[in-house]
Fold this sequence. Notes:
By secondary structure, the protein is mainly β. It has a single domain, classed as Porin. It is built from one helix and 19 strands.
Amino acid sequence: MSKGPGFFSDIGKKAKDLLTKDYNSDQKFTVSTYSDAGVALTSTAVKKGGLSTGDVASQFKFRNAVVDVKVDTESNISTTLTLTEILPSTKTIASFKLPDYNSGKLEVQYFHNHATFTTAFGLNQSPFIDVSTTIGTPSIAFGAEAGYDATSGNFTKYTAGISMTKPDSSAAIILGDKGDTMRASYVHHLDQYNKSAAAGEITRRFSTNENTFTVGGSYAVDHLTVVKAKLNNHGRLGALLQHEVIPKSVLTISGEVDTKNLDKNPRFGLAIALKP
C-alpha cells in the first residue's frame, strides 16, 4: 500500500486516542493465542454494571485474505472477510452478522500516494452508502465524508476536516454533525519514541452554544509503564496506569471522578490483556 495521506478517520485520531483510548469503567480480561498456521484466537470477558458478557474471536490468514469470526454470549456471529490487492492499491472488506441478515456491508478502499478513497454499501433492502476521501500528503491532508440513506433519500452525515502532521506534533480541525460541531485538536510528542505526549481538544456545538475543552497527557515512566491523565472544563478528571507485566501482556487500571460533584461515586476500570 502507498504512503499517502491516510484515511479520513485518521484526521484528529492521535489526539483522540491520547484523550480517550484505554480509559474505561469496566472489568475486562482478554487472552490471545496464535498458531504457526496463522490462526489467531482471542477470548474476551467483560463485567459492566454487574452484568457479564464475553466473546470469542478467531482470525484466519491465507495469502491475501483474512477472515475474522466473532461469537458473543448472545450467539451472534460476526464475520469479516478482508481481501487485499484484488485490484492494484485496493482493499475489499465484506462483513455480516448472524442472525441479523440485514447487517451485510461491503467496503472498498483505494490507496494512492496523494489520495485515499473509501466507499461502503449496505447489502440489504434499505441500503446506505458511505463515502469518504482524503487528499494530500502525510504532512498535510484535506478530507470529507458523507452518508446517504437510499430509502429516505436523505444524507445521514457530512463531515470535513484538515490535518497537519510533523514528526513531533499533529493538529486537526473537523467540522461534523452536518455542520453543527467543530472540533480542533493538537498533540505534541515529548520524546522520540512518541510514548510521552501532551494534547488538547476543544469542541464547539453551535446549536446549543456549548464548548468543551479537554487537556491531557501521557508519560512513559520506563519502557514498561505509562501513566495518562485528562481533565475537561466540566470537571471530569481521568487517569490510568498501564504496565507491561510480561512481554506483550498489559495490565491497565483507570479511573474517573467528577471534581465538581465529589459526592458522586467515581468510576474505576481494570483491563488485562494476555498475549503469547
